[in-house]
Amino acid sequence: MKFSIKHLSFFVINVEGKESQTIKNYKHYQTLDAYEYLDSEIKVFLDGEFNRIAKRKVEKNPSAEQAPTKIGRFIVEPGYELDSNPNFNMFARLRGAEDKEDYKNACDDLVRSYLDTSSVRGGALIIVQAVLTNVSEDPFIFVLKCDFEQKIARISDEQSLISQVEMAISARSMKSIQYPYMEEEGMVDEWELKIHQSSHARYFEDFLKFVTYELSIPEIVNEHVMEFVQTYVETKWPDENETERQQVEKELEIWAASEKRDIQDKWEPAQVAEAAERIVEIKPEIELKFRIGDTMVKGRLADFGELIHIAKLDGRYAVILEGDSFTFDKAFSPVELLQPEPFEVVAKRILEKKIPQEYTEDDGIPY
What pLDDT sits at residue 367? Predict the structure, then answer.
């Protein structure tokens, strides 16, 4: 996969002050055509970056809520065409520019729009028009953002040894937009683009106000669980003014908003298994993670009720895990030499165990 650069515009963004007192401005340094780019220092700086961006793996439904790489899709009202979307039009103008002046003007509009982003920081903004050599003449647009690096020094001479470099940038933490998104080489979708940014940042999501992103797997699971919970409440207490229903809804609202949640002890195992099965249909690899006491358990939601079992023992909890094999990683442990006892023997010993006086029910499963 090889990209040929047709145009490149280089801008520097300066942000002074803090919070509501910030002053933001930008300076256009240079716009290059294909021939000028080949002889430029920026070519050495960017060599290989376009391939890395295009090949960077991304999922439509990320496995984490704050995934650094996402696929966005332009939003249009029902019955309207793609060219009704302002963000699409901005990229379409960049793709259609055929000379340096038109391209520089289109880039200026993008940079001014980017400066309105609340989380914008100082750095270099590089906007590139490129084609995939020997595949298609339809251009790609790459928007590259490099923040200024702090406390950068270089060796200077024998007297001063080192000197500070102002406004240093690095490709190491580069943020990027690629339009259009290319699922496979030569296979593009003009409705979609790919963004890459720090997982905690919203650089490009704030910037691209008319682009939407698919929910992450945790968000999908949360949405489905809350739908199941609401259906359960409405079925059990049809009258929304019933005091017991209102109390349960309040309890569930507090439960849903908590980062660490205790096991609720509300649904029968069959109800939980049915809800889990419907979620697993979305993505079979969805994880099930919880802590019992000080022990973390990590498995698959699909295995709940089959290979992962949760039981109650006189106010305490037990987790039973099944498997055809038992393996250990890293450091040795004497447990590796164990000859396992029959399950019945272990179950009896647990049932006969004396509960320490200091134990309370609050030591259950933080989920």
Answer: 38
